[in-house]
Amino acid sequence: MVSTASAKNGTWRNWGGNVAARPAREVEPASVEELSRAIRRAAEDGLKVKAVGSGHSFTSIAATDGVLIRPQLLTGIRRIDREAMTVTVEAGTPLKRLNMALAREGLSLANMGDIMEQTVSGATSTGTHGTGRESGSIAAQIKGLELVTADGSVLTCSATENPEVFAAARIGLGALGVVTAITFAVEPVFLLQAREEPMPFDRVLAEFDELWAENEHFEFYWFPHTGNTNTKRNNRSAGPEQPVSRLKGWFEDEFLSNGVFQAAQWAGRAVPATIPAIARISSTALSARTYTDIPYKVFTSPRRVRFVEMEYAVPRAAVVETLRELKAMVDGSGMRISFPVEVRTAPADDITLSTASGRDSAYVAVHMAKGTPYQRYFTAAERIFTAHEGRPHWGKVHTRDAEYFAKVYPRFGEFIALRDRLDPDRLFQNDYLRRVLGT
Fold first, then answer.
1. Are strands 142-148 and 6-8 parallel, antiparallel or unpaired?
2. Are 173 and 434 contacting, i.e. CB atoms less than 8 angstroms apart?
3. Which of 17, 128, 293, 412 has the highest CB neighbour number within 10 Å of its CB?
């Protein structure tokens, strides 16, 4: 699969190519018992332990020089409970396989992100999300999970069993243990009508509250150096099913959104001065379209152009001002930004370190093509995001530390206390967790 992380000559690299690590050994357990033994052995050998999924995080959250756990063999659906409307799935299962398996069973998750190459445990542990007025992140749909802790014991948790662990471990950053299975809430498969159309940037900002309130799922992409956006509104539909035709889908989602877009990135890297003109063309290349299909075929799309990303959650009430400041910064900086800015929303949830914990949130994501210098752009954007008490996505580039997180997460101390209890010797520690959670 093109989107998985790679391992060459003992070196592990993430999908974005900006993180590398050389673990002392890699383990692919075929059962929870094998995983428990691997964790106990690592502790005996004085080695740290990290689990890694598809490597889609742009941070070093999964990097280790100790034991790297690869869960490729811990895959598949354990059980479907149609009475409780839940599905329990092994941690290494890719979201793509889960979505397709659920569809065959006439079931679906309520919401999902815009790509589905990640493993279920990697996606939830870092807070992966889509966009939604009432429906939250993938982790917010978790009803229970199974966790192997630092002493090798297996802990199950839910709202009623080990609830204090459940509150935190749904987005656990790999700091509390290794997730081995997740139970998600599901519902009967439904249809979504997608309405995609260009809209001026100023109009989107002026009408943002109405666009959010009137649609179950609203998002948009703004193209820097232009006043243009592409908007997407997804709402439940009674049907009939009207999918994008295979030819039209290939032309718009593969040829334009991946092939031509990749060529535009190459051209922009070769001659940065052409980027504003390319952005104007790119922002008008996709025409308006409406289609109706099952959820994963509407929420997700292929992403074949490699990039590096920073994303912050700001209070939803602050997103319009945040975007105005971001546009003013780009316009006045002289920088050439070839990737669109993505904007999504999520309702408040009750997960300890969720970026939407306790507050309605909006997400602003900035990207740069893989291999292009991104530090200046990301640093300037981050300055704007943090001025609005932004919370960075745990799996995307940021420079924040534990001191900052203690200010923007009211329950930060609760997470640290739980970590002290479950992993007192910091078996699951690495440099990233040392920075974001403290020592």
1. unpaired
2. no
3. 128
Question: Residue 314 pairs with which residues in a beta bridge?
Answer: 362
Q: Are 57 and 4 in contact (CB under 8 A)?
A: no
List beta partners, residue 119.
94
| Centroid of chain to Cα 82 | 28
Are residues 275 and 322 in contact, defined by beta-carbon separation less than 8 angstroms?
Answer: no
What is residue 346's three-state secondary structure?
Answer: strand
* SS3 annotation, 191-253: EEEEEEEEEEHHHHHHCHHHHHHHCCEEEEEECCCCCEEEEEEEEEECCCCECCCHHHHHHHH
Helix axes 375-387, 319-333, angle to 10 degrees: 150
Is 2's pLDDT higher than 50?
Answer: no
366 membership: H or E segment, kind and range: strand 361-369
Based on C-alpha coordinates, what's the Rg of the chain?
21
Range scoring the smallest mean pLDDT among 53-62, 104-113, 186-195, 298-307: 298-307
> Comparing C-alpha atoms, which of 151, 18, 81 is closest to residue 421?
151
Residue whose C-alpha is closest to residue 152's, from 432, 417, 428, 416? 428
According to DSSP, the residues that pair with 363 across neighbouring strands are 313, 344
Residues whose CB falls within 8 Å of the CB of residue 262, separated by 6 or more in sequence, listed in order: 304, 305
Residues in the chain: 439
Q: What is the pLDDT of residues 222-251, one digit of tens each?
A: 999 999 999 999 999 998 999 886 655 544
Q: Are 438 and 402 in contact (CB under 8 A)?
A: yes
Question: Cα separation of 258 and 4, whole Å?
Answer: 18
> Which tokens hold the place of 25?
């050994």
DSSP 8-state symbol, 259: I
The answer to whether the CB of 98 falls within 8 A of the CB of 120 is yes
pLDDT at residue 142 greater than cutoff 90: yes
Q: Identify the helix (H) or strand (E) that includes residue 149.
A: none
pLDDT digits (tens, 9 = 90+) for 254-295: 545 555 556 666 566 666 776 776 667 676 666 789 999 999
The SS3 of residue 343 is: strand
What does the alpha-carbon distance between residue 62 and residue 172 come to, in Å, rounded to a whole number? 12
Angle between the 261-270 and 275-285 helix axes, to the nearest 10 degrees? Answer: 170
Distance CA 35, CA 87 (A): 22
Q: Determine the residue type at 435.
A: R
How much is the mean pLDDT over the chain? Answer: 92
